[in-house]
């Protein structure tokens, strides 16, 4: 049985979907605009359609029409596609084999990430069989999660309807009263000590250096730590290191551990026991997002994370110095109008700088990500080629080409963009345009997640577990995969300016300062002398799109994450 509500919530919030194009009425006028029309492109052989201005559907401000157009356009273009596979009535082992077969056929990055599906199946099938024999739901869920987490792709994930059947709490419900951070120097320090904890009573303080965990050198211990309970699955080496550092100090409640700490020049070996702390030390380890968030310990990642940050999908405010701050938490249709209003206000008021905060951006509509970038670029910028697996043809096909078009009036002042390993999917789209064009600066502790593929609900498993994985990729203009991390775990969008992770910045962050925002504002301070002005964009056939859209001509290639 398909858990439609869970699936749809996750679909809207966190994934990108290929869609197609609609060329409606006034065909004669459409034919008169070849740069705007739906048709093959010389730079995209095989593409049926080209989207030259991704802002068109958002400028119209009619979400219902947009969704109807996308859905109406999707079916004829990808008529061979099938809905999510339903393996829910199969035995646990049979369903796992069916999922494995499906992923082996349709996963978009097998070669790119050097995924050996046969080896993965050989490793995890016995665990699935063991769980089935005992009818151990937690063990079954844990094995499925382990199989998917062995693939370094933040889009290859699963959701359960019963809070992981207790597996998460059983594995990491206990904390030792301290959180760890790994600095740029490589040192691992204590970043937080819980009040009343045994570590605190022993005199351990934030800033003390940790050298070993259970007698194992600390870096080896971190590298050996499973990361299957990371809330937003990391796709890059630095993202994995961050999550493993957070999780090394978690264990089943009651588990003993010996932690070796250098308190000044004094070595202290602490014998600690994991206690149920309500995931306190994990909450304290989310400073990379700019504030304390209960991410891993939340009961429902679909509903319990964003309310801790914002009541909506976008936050706009004025920072000291008159800078415009825009935080976007997901590329949802309703985001565009307030984003547009913020940009027009920044232009009208000659804001000396703009901060775009994408550190907790879970993705959404790729068209919107491309459109938002159009407020800052000075020329049309290629956004992507969209691919999708066609089960009828048994191969991946290119569906569309998309471009970021400069807005008729754009912002020309300095722009700072903040990202994190939680910046995933279409959230990585605007930073990707900035990175490729040299627009503004990306200023953060870490790069983005590195999961940019076309993710979809792919299968429903026994116990109502829903599996997602990408069956399409985003290609650069040269036809190579862009943004998604590769087999060497390199990918995502790296900062142009890395905020230093040292004892000082970690201490400031733990004290409540948004250190990354501080650095972004300091960079903007240094850019003064470059005024923000209203600059007409270059004229091009695509720039006329908005005018003709008002007449009912819409030519769309959209992809939803």
How would you describe the overall organization of this protein?
The protein contains 18 helices and 25 strands. With 561 residues, it is an alpha/beta fold. A hairpin with a 5-residue loop joins strand 5 and strand 6 (188-193). Helix 6 (117-134) packs antiparallel against helix 7 (137-149) and helix 14 packs parallel to helix 15. It is globular.
Q: Strands of the largest sheet, in order across it?
A: 13-14-15-19-20-24
What would the principal axes of the Cα set say about the shape?
Answer: globular
N→C terminal distance:
24 Å
> Would you tell me the structural class of the helices and strands?
alpha/beta
The radius of gyration over CA amounts to 24 Å
Uncertain runs with pLDDT below 50, 5 residues or more?
1-40, 530-560
- Average pLDDT works out at 85
The proportion of residues forming helix, as a percent range, comes to 25-40%
Count of DSSP-assigned helices: 18
Structure summary, number of beta strands: 25
Descriptive tags:
single chain, 561 residues, alpha/beta, 6-stranded mixed sheet, 4-stranded mixed sheet, disordered C terminus
Q: What's this model, at a glance?
A:
With 561 residues, the protein is α/β, with parallel strands linked by helices. The protein contains 18 helices and 25 strands. The strands form seven sheets. Strands 13-14-15-19-20-24 form a six-stranded mixed β-sheet, sandwiched between helices. The protein has a four-stranded mixed β-sheet with strand order 1-17-16-23. Strands 2-21-22-3 form a four-stranded mixed β-sheet, with helices on both faces.
